[in-house]
Amino acid sequence: MSNTTSIHDLPTDPTGGGTVNGNIQLVANEMKLPSITNSDPSPNNPSINLDQTTINQIISGLQQASSTGLTVLPSRDIPRNTENITQDPQIQPNFIPPSSNADYIEDDDSGENIIYNYNRYQKREDTLDSLYNEIQTPLLLVILYFTFQLPIFKNTLFKYIPALCNKDGNYNLSGYVFTSLLYGIVFYSISKIQSTF
């Protein structure tokens, strides 16, 4: 048991109410600075008096920092390209910026330009309208044809009007006539609605 430590010899947790011996303690001693009252502060008579040893310590610290390179500006902060500074005409001591003689009256659109731009805009609108009118009818026909050829349309027709279809589910002559008439009526109705609105 000579290699073991007694539980009472171990340090205890100070948060649990025990004390830890041998820890570092911080002792702060405050020194009062003498109050300096100077009625006439001047640059030749500084308000803080430094003794010679303090001045020597400051100078030796600066020399040591200078010799180790601590007072040198980091290379990332030194501009590498100074051409934009040396070639900028605005940094010249007698630089006079060029005067801007803008003629606001001539720069404004004339009546002819306004009319020309309006006519060009109208022509573009007319082109788009005519293109829409040309595409409208064939597109409507394609959509209607696709809708009438869907199996759900044929099954619904076979379910509600079985006289228009054969026993195998295909149209007979009456079915073709009926779907053609329905196709034409739907197309005519949609065309009239579009032309009205």
Q: How is this structure best summarized?
A:
With 197 residues, the protein is mainly alpha-helical.
Explain what this protein looks like in three dimensions:
- By secondary structure, the protein is mostly helical.
- It has helices spanning 52-68, 83-86, 104-107, 111-149, 151-160, 173-196.
- It contains 6 helices and no strands.
- It has a domain at 141-197.
- The longest helix has 39 residues, at 111-149.
- Keywords: Membrane, Transmembrane, Transmembrane helix.
Note poorly predicted spans.
none
Total E-strand runs? 0
List SSEs in N-to-C order.
Answer: HHHHHH
Mean pLDDT: 79
> Structural class of the helices, strands and pairings?
mainly alpha
Q: Tell me the fraction of residues in β-strands, as a range.
A: under 5%
Can you summarize the main beta sheet?
none
Question: So what's the overall shape?
Answer: elongated
Region (Disordered): 1-22, 74-93
Transmembrane segments: 131-153, 173-191
Keywords: Membrane, Transmembrane, Transmembrane helix
Biased composition (Polar residues): 81-93
Jot down its keywords.
single chain; 197 residues; mainly alpha; 6 helices; 50% helix; elongated
Q: How is the topology of this model organized?
A:
Layout: H1 52-68, H2 83-86, H3 104-107, H4 111-149, H5 151-160, H6 173-196
